[in-house]
Structures are given as structure tokens and as C-alpha cells.
Amino acid sequence: MGSSDDKLFKEAAAILTAVKFHARDDTNFDWVYYETAQDMRNEIDQYIASFEKGSREYLDEVNMHFLPTAAYQEHSIANDWVAEYYVLAERFDKIYAALKSKTSF
Fold first, then answer.
1. CA 61 to CA 71: how far, in whole Å?
2. Which one of 9, 26, 70, 79 is most buried, by most CB atoms within 10 A?
3. What are the residue ranges of helices labelled H in 1-104?
């Protein structure tokens, strides 16, 4: 894995850390994929650990959570952090595209 990939995975982990910040115990999970804030934090921690190792294992799965009406957007709508979500999602979309363009088959 090259240094450009390292930077991309580091940025992806930082984005997920920002999403995780909003998964507080006092937030609304009524229309969200996750049942509890702890469930969301645990899964995000798994993704962060993977990205910090430079692994692509969860890349597609995390991308799914950033799609419109998926888990992260639904949580942002229910908990009033939509503007930040859009910024984070746009950043992740660029990272995802860059990493996917480097995937060898």
C-alpha cells in the first residue's frame, strides 16, 4: 500500500471519528439502522481499526452507510447534524472513489 493510500485511509478514519462523535447515548435512533448508540459506536470502531491498518475489508460497507437514506444520513436527520453529514459524506465519497480506482482485480 502506498503513502497516498495511507493518507486516504487516515482521512476515512477521521471522517468516521466525526460520525461517531454524534452517536451519543442521548441521541434519537428511532429511524436508524442501529438500535443503540453503543451499537453504532462499536461498528464504527471496527471500521476505524480496519482503515487504520490500511484494510479495504469494510470500504464498501462504510460507503453503504453514507448513501442517501442510509444509516448515517438518517441519524443526522433525526439528530440535527445534517449539514455536517453532507460535508463528511462528500469527503468520504471522494476517498471511496480514489481507493476503488486503485483496486486491482
1. 11
2. 9
3. 3-21, 37-52, 59-66, 71-78, 82-101
Confidence of residue 33 (pLDDT cuts 50, 70, 90): confident
Burial class (CB in 10 A: 0-12, 13-18, 19+), 5: middle
Cell numbers 453503543: residue: 38
Compute the mean pLDDT over every residue in the chain, rounded to the nearest whole number.
Answer: 93
Domain definitions of the chain by residue range: 3-101
Cell numbers that stand for 92 in this block:
468520504
Contacts of 37 (CB under 8 A, 6+ apart): 23, 24, 25, 27, 29
Nine cell digits for residue 26: 442521548
Q: Give the pLDDT confidence of 35-67 residue by residue, as tens digits.
A: 999 999 999 999 999 999 999 999 999 999 999
